[in-house]
Amino acid sequence: MLVQEKLIPFLTEYGKKNPENKFRISTSFGDIDVLLYNDTPLHRANMILLIKEGYFNGTFFHRVADGFVIQGGNSDNKETSIKRNNMGSYLIPSEFDAGHKHSRGAFSAAKYAEQNVSKASSPFEFFIVQSERGAHHLDNDHTVYGRVIKGMEVVDEIAKQPIGEGEWPLINIPMTVEIIK
């Protein structure tokens, strides 16, 4: 179980031993391939860790805002809550210094707004910018740590799904996530 006090040394070491930087999100709408940036090492290492632990399998794209973003990594399944508890309660320090922007296809970390003055990232949730214009009002507010390299048409299709309260799609959009070469 990860704790905040040991997070940076743990993820730094994990990142050195696990250099992968590409993964695939598979959905019923198709696949989305993502390249993670090496200059956001804590976010990259955390994502690779969660993928290898199987965290994302069975989570959903749980927020769909057509013309803005699609957000994933959560679900209302009990298993997701159990997985989170097993991983630990921690936030990833922001890595804005890398200078990546919220352009279309940006892969970025969600964060909790409440009492989060350091703008630290949620380790479990991410979003993909769908807007053609980008979402530059989020620059230096959320850490961009990758980009979609294949499958933006899948992102666009997911973004079109009908939504209910809280922009949650009316039909669950589960995902499986795996490392690719």
From TrEMBL:
Cite the EC number.
5.2.1.8
This protein's superkingdom? Bacteria
Q: Which GO terms describe its molecular function?
A: peptidyl-prolyl cis-trans isomerase activity
Give the matching CDD domains: cyclophilin (cd00317)
* Reactions it catalyzes: [protein]-peptidylproline (omega=180) = [protein]-peptidylproline (omega=0)
Alphabetical list of PROSITE patterns matching this protein: CSA_PPIASE_2
Which SUPFAM superfamilies does the UniProt entry name for this protein? Cyclophilin-like
Annotated PPIase cyclophilin-type domain residues: 30-181
Keywords carried by this UniProt record: Isomerase, Rotamase
Residue stretches in coiled coil: none
Q: Which InterPro entries match?
A: Cyclophilin-like_dom_sf (IPR029000), Cyclophilin-type_PPIase_dom (IPR002130), Cyclophilin_A-like (IPR044666)
Q: Does the keyword Isomerase apply?
A: yes
Please give the function described in this protein's UniProt entry: PPIases accelerate the folding of proteins. It catalyzes the cis-trans isomerization of proline imidic peptide bonds in oligopeptides.
Q: Which PANTHER family match?
A: PEPTIDYL-PROLYL CIS-TRANS ISOMERASE-RELATED, PEPTIDYLPROLYL ISOMERASE DOMAIN AND WD REPEAT-CONTAINING PROTEIN 1
Q: Which family does it belong to?
A: Belongs to the cyclophilin-type PPIase family.
This chain's protein is named Peptidyl-prolyl cis-trans isomerase
- Source organism per entry reads Gillisia hiemivivida
